[in-house]
Automatic annotation (TrEMBL):
Belongs to the sigma-70 factor family. ECF subfamily. This is RNA polymerase subunit sigma-24. SUPFAM superfamilies: Sigma2 domain of RNA polymerase sigma factors, Sigma3 and sigma4 domains of RNA polymerase sigma factors. InterPro entries: RNA_pol_sigma-70-like (IPR039425), RNA_pol_sigma-70_dom (IPR014284), RNA_pol_sigma70_r4_t2 (IPR013249), RNA_pol_sigma_r2 (IPR013325), RNA_pol_sigma_r3/r4-like (IPR013324), WH-like_DNA-bd_sf (IPR036388). Keywords: DNA-binding, Sigma factor, Transcription, Transcription regulation. One of its GO terms (molecular function) is sigma factor activity. It holds the Pfam family Sigma70_r4_2. Residues 104-152 form the RNA polymerase sigma factor 70 region 4 type domain. It comes from Cellulomonas chitinilytica. GO terms for biological process: DNA-templated transcription initiation.
Amino acid sequence: MAAWEQVLDELVRVRGRALVRYAALLTGDERAGEDLVQDALVRCFSGGRPLRDTVAAEAYVRKAVLSTFLDGHRRRLRWSAVRHLVARDDEVAGHEATSGTRVDVRAALMTLRPRLRACVVLRYYDDLTVPEIGRRLDVAEGTVKRYLADATAQLEALLGPLPDADTVDIELVTNGKERS
C-alpha cells in the first residue's frame, strides 16, 4: 500500500465522522455533508499530491470541503437564474406562518448566506481565530469581522439574544455530540 493510501485510510477511519459533521454544518444535511466530504477527498487524493501526514491531510481536506461548498453554492445560484427557462415548479411555496416550536441552531444556520455560515462554522466549530478564517476564505480580517457580526445579528433575530460569542457552547451546534 502506498503512503498516500495509508494516510487516506487512516484519515477516513479516524477523522471521517468529524469531517462529515463539519460538512453537514455547512450544508445543513448529513447526506449532503457525506457527499461533500467524498468530493473533497477525491479532489485531494486524486491529484497526485504528496499527502503523507494525516494531520496535514485533514487540514487540506477541510479546506477542500469549504471550497467545494462555496463553489457549489455559486454554481447553484447561476443555475437558479436560468432554471426557470427549462422547467417550472408544480407547486408554489406558501407563506404560512411557522408554528410556535423552538427554532434550533442548525435550522438558524441554514438561513445564513454561505459566506456568513462558513465564518460561523469556522469560528465556533473549528475554533479558528479571525485571521485564520480570513486566510481560509481569502478575505480581509475586517471582512471576517463584518461577516461574523452580520451572522450574529441574524442568528439573534431568530434565536433571541445569544450569550457572549467566546463562551458559546458548541454542543448546541453539534446536537450534543462530542466534538472530535
